[in-house]
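S1.2 Input.
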Amino acid sequence: MNGTSDSGSDQQRNLRCREAALEMGAEQFRQAGHLLVDQIGDFLQTLQTAPSPSESGQPSRPVHPAESVAEVKAALGSAALPQQGMAAAALLDETAHLLFDHSLFNGHPGFMAYVTSSAAPIGALGDLLASSINANVGAWALSPMATEIEKQTVDWIRQAIDCDESYGGLLVSGGTMANFVGFLAARKAQTDWDIRSQGLGKSGQSLRLYASRETHTWLQKAADLFGLGTDAIVWIDTDDQQKIDSHDLQGKIAADREAGLQPFLVIASAGTVSTGAIDPLEAIAEICRAQDLWFHVDGAYGAFAAMLPEASSDLRALSSADSIALDPHKWLYTPLEAGCVLVKDPKHLVDAFSFHPDYYLFDQDDQQENSEDQPINFYEYGLQNSRGFRALKVWLAWRQAGREGYIGMIRDDIALAQVLAKKVTQQEELQLCTQSLSITTFVYVPRQIPPALSEIEGREYLNDLNRELLEQVQATGQVYLSNAMIDGQFVLRACIVNFRTTLSEVEKLLQVVVDLGRALEKA
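S1.3 Output.
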């Protein structure tokens, strides 16, 4: 009996003074954190070029180490699940070196491949602060200041692209999720039955949505996952600039109505993923208004370019959309993950997503007399209930750079892509394909193409040559490109959303492509 009593007393003492394996004292945290911040600072310096045009210098680190899967696996090791822990400082040091030595760096000035930007360092610090608070930004009561910061951040995004005050929304993980939210809001708003309780049913089989094949593949995922099926997508023809043909759109909507189908959604792009094309948003908005259809714009890449005073009228027509997807982790240079969706009437988000279970008492907060002081519960606005504090890194970057700072960085990215396009036209072996926003596409064309090839064989010869060329360019570690397919042609694609990229990297890119192309030509 005494042994049992002693054991119980020991347990109670232990529970009063817990020693949790994951806890870190203030001084231990400071020491580990200071060491890590120093390492990150040194790492960021290796991505930077010479500080002034008069100095010749390049980043001391390649874009990536060009390792095989086996080499990366070997560096990590195949250890089993740890049974015992290790000191935090040593663990962070080891992990930092694993990541510094075995990663592809989209913050490197030579990275011009995908629409993933160089990340603002203040965003990394913001993520540290947000993680330390660990706010659950699903309900105001759980995260009062974090919720208000997200609400303000969403409104700053609205102001940046000049949408009126009615628009509201929330931050999500990225462009796909932002587009999903707009898609689901449209599905609920455009159906005349209780789709949330009854599902799609037979009526849902007649729903149709319209987009061009230049639309990002989020669309096929949405149609599949949300019950319509990919056959519900009506593909609209594009013109020679990869933009939606509005006449074809009108004709296909009319034909579907004649066939007894139910059009409900038109999707346009403000900056397509392949070439940066901007669909004729003004004309599409007019069609949607006339046809009473939901107009959604996928502006994940290009929407923030609407901030520029010189932005095209179509880009400025974002404010005609019922919903807009944007990605701060693209052209606001915030660290992954950070997407945003704006909806002209946020009530549609509540209609599409809100449920009120008994164990959620957050609605008691909604009793303020002044409507402006009503708390917002973001779990009612989207797919997530528990939500991280994504907004802080976006909010901090807005405050550090300001609107004018962002205009300058975006304008520079576009100018560099335009310079690249001009230099491509001046190079004998390069052929310009497209240039829009900060994306330039081109192909390497050898001075001598085998004369016996037919037109189709010649196209395949160039496609194969440029595929191999792209692999070799990427393997150099100096610059990193991607590709696009334009009317069956494999093209090299440079996308500049990188505040570290300079004219030096653009010139190096051209030299690397030409040198490697000539070597392949001789092989």
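S1.4 Remarks. The chain has a mean pLDDT of 93.
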